Amino acid sequence: MLPAAPADPCSAGAAALARPECPRPEDWSEATRSLEVRALSHVLAEPRRRSEYIGKVTRGTRVSWTRILKGGDTPEVDVRSARRAWGKRQPCAYWVNLEPAGYLCSDQLEPSALPPEGRPQPQVRAGGLLPFAYYAVLNDATPTYASVDDVRAGTIKKELSKKFMVVGGGAVDVDGVTYLKTDHGFVDQAALGRYGASGFSGLDLRAQPPAAWPFGWLVSARGAKTRVFREASKDAEVVRRAARREVVPVLEEREGFVRIGEAEWIERAGVRIARLTEPPTGLLDAQQWVDVDLDEQVLVAYEGRTPVFATLVSTGRNKHATPPATYRVRAKAATTPMMGGEKDSPGRYEISEVPWAVRFRDGLFIHTAYWHDSFGNVVSHGCVNLSPRDAAFVFAWVAPKLPDGWSEIEVPLGTAPMVRIRDRQNPTPVAHDYSTEEPELAAKAP
User: Fold this and answer.
1) φ and ψ at 353, to 5 degrees?
2) To bridge 353 with a disulfide, which of 17, 335, 348, 359 should be the other Cys (CB 3.0-4.6 Å)?
3) In CATH, which of 2.40.440.10, 3.40.1550.10, 3.30.230.10, 3.40.50.2000 is domain 288-444?
4) Fold matches, 133-194 and 288-444
5) Hey, CA dihedral for 261, 262, 264, 269, is it positive or negative?
């Protein structure tokens, strides 16, 4: 038997800094235990400026590393890229291979004597539902200002339409008028309406397994209660009124009615039913996957054939209908802005910092919707909307885990969790062709 190859003495993180033969920046002492990220940074797949990025790590995160490489690569600058920040940067003197993966240049990092530490993203206060305070813009042509001085001078930065949703925090009194500092600038607080997030949550089936499948949620209008009839007829006696989103067994279906108990019938249109279904072709044993039933507006998350979570969703309506297909998880973002329509066009919308976003196709995500509480009904522009609690659950559950301190992570296509979106016309939808949006993945599509 051949002896094992000796370990690389320079691939031992902080311990390697004591070795004079190992590469390191001059200002990194042997007391360095972690490296603090100076600003929100893209983590690169390879030690070169033009490499694809695999995620983002937030400012202030203290990372550990496995090795340091001498750099010296020169950014490739052309007419199109010359204006981009990374196209202007100097060659990287040292590349740092982070744990768990990826590279940052040493000029993005500050040595620290403190141990590695990162905050899970997004940050939500104890007892809260969302990471930020979110606001609707109440009027078209709402002006924003870059500073308090600009407010006083009347120097408008830009105007927002009612299709904008903003993050706000920090009220400022300007000559008797309260302005809110938002991610678009200072805005008159009277022109903004704060969103109250939905408190709805689905079922963790590991902690709350249903008595039987199928089961459903009642989806009467907000504030209303569902009439429960003694027989399968609207002319029958009403025996009780059931609460909105009450979870009920589905015991029998007949002529537009569903039986939910002994001599208890409700109208079929008022219930969204979750049913067990077969996994998609190509699924590995115990692999995670998500099933979205467009007809029922129900999501069920599985590990192999075992359902672990079920809830109501809101998918796309009318010309923005969510397209049926079998997808793969492509990325996860703690928060991300979303927008649509041509810039400066009347149809343009912008939604600030949408939390718990799982991308499965270019422009399509499973994410929370902080602006409505209509789960169980089609509402969206194509994405799969969840309540804050449900989106946080799915985001944390679906692989890969977002490393502490990271705000985004890209997911290799290979064996990434599947997302199947189906309806009656497409009960077993085909795999999405990722080569149409990512040509280099043509040979790896699921």
Assistant:
1) 40, 65
2) 335
3) 2.40.440.10
4) no
5) positive
* Helix or strand holding residue 135 (H, E): strand 133-137
pTM exceeding 0.85: yes
Question: Which CATH code for domain 133-194?
Answer: 2.30.30
Q: In the β-sheet with 62-63, what is the strand arrangement from edge to edge?
A: 62-63, 34-37, 109-112
Mention every residue, 6+ apart, whose C-beta is less than 8 A from residue 9. Answer: 16, 19, 21, 22
Question: Residue 446 is encoded by which pair of tokens?
Answer: 């699921």
Going 421 to 423 to 427 to 433, the CA torsion angle's sign is: negative
Q: What is d(CA 446, CA 53) in angstroms, rounded to the nearest whole number? A: 22
CA nearest to 432, candidates 332, 349, 336, 359: 359
The tens-digit pLDDT sequence of the chain (446 residues) is 455 555 788 988 898 998 988 999 988 999 999 999 999 999 999 999 889 999 999 999 999 999 999 986 544 433 333 334 444 567 899 999 999 999 999 999 999 999 999 999 999 999 999 999 999 999 999 999 999 999 999 999 999 999 999 999 989 999 999 999 999 999 999 999 999 999 999 999 999 899 899 999 999 877 789 999 999 999 999 999 999 999 999 999 999 999 999 999 999 999 999 999 999 998 988 999 999 999 999 999 999 999 999 999 999 999 999 999 999 999 999 999 998 877 767 678 899 999 999 999 999 999 999 999 999 999 999 999 999 999 999 999 999 999 999 999 999 988 899 999 999 999 999 999 998 887 654 443 33
E strands present in 231-388: 238-242, 247-249, 252-254, 257-261, 264-267, 271-274, 288-293, 298-303, 306-312, 325-328, 331-340, 349-361, 364-368, 384-386
Superfamily of domain 13-112: SH3 Domains (2.30.30.40)
